[in-house]
Amino acid sequence: MLEYDKRKGCAMIIEEKTLSSEMVYRGAILNLRKDKVTVKGGRTSYREIVEHSGGVIILGVTAEGRIPMVRQYRKALEKAAFELPAGKLEPGEDPAIAALREFREETGYTAADIRHVSAFYPTVGYSTELLHIYFADGLTAGETDFDENESIEISEHTPEELYAMIDEGIIDDGKSLIALLLYRYSTDTKICAR
């Protein structure tokens, strides 16, 4: 929480101290807890926090300049989503190892080189989830290894095709949008020349 300090002429961070914490739900991919916290003016309030171990997003580029994408049904949306390959981190897992594993499992490709581009919190208001974005190249085709509960369609597209799909609203997955726009930013000579 930020509060403007007139005497110092700047914003101050007001920390919320946890007074108590109750685990409401423990699940396979997330937990939900309810924290009682102190807020401005000495009052108390409650925060509902989704605990999540985080994940990885992988944007790979083939020798032909194409980017593998996956389409899979997402129950929360009640529709299929068009996404970059991604997956959940196991607690304590190295994100780079997870990125290589998820990319191979979902696309069949192995990567000779991966580069950590960024990490971001997709929902800072209520979740601990941290997502890591990787760019991969030096790809070698192989066999997919989907989880037994996954049904995934794979396709490959040029960056220009994917940017058009963003403009048309076909790609609406937040993590994929961020990774694709970071890739566009990193490869657009007009932008990089500024």
List the helices and strands and how they pair.
Elements: E1 2-5, E2 10-13, E3 18-26, E4 31-38, E5 44-51, E6 55-60, E7 67-74, E8 79-83, E9 86-88, H1 95-107, E10 110-120, E11 131-140, E12 152-157, H2 159-167, H3 174-187, H4 189-192
Parallel strand pairs: 6-11
Antiparallel strand pairs: 1-2, 3-4, 4-5, 6-9, 7-8, 7-12, 10-11
Helix pairs in contact: 2-3
Short overview:
By secondary structure, the protein is an alpha+beta fold. The protein has helices at residues 95-107, 159-167, 174-187, 189-192; strands spanning 2-5, 10-13, 18-26, 31-38, 44-51, 55-60, 67-74, 79-83, 86-88, 110-120, 131-140, 152-157. The radius of gyration is 20 Å and the shape is globular.
Structural description of this entry:
The protein has 194 residues and is of the alpha+beta class. The protein folds into two domains: 50 residues, no CATH class; 138 residues, Alpha-Beta Complex (Nucleoside Triphosphate Pyrophosphohydrolase), CATH 3.90.79.10. It contains four helices and twelve strands; from the N terminus they run βββββββββαβββααα. The strands form four sheets. The protein has a four-stranded mixed β-sheet with strand order 9-6-11-10, sandwiched between helices. Strand 3 and strand 4 form a beta hairpin. The longest helix is centred in the last third of the chain and has 14 residues. The two termini are 34 Å apart. The model has no long low-confidence stretch (mean pLDDT 91).
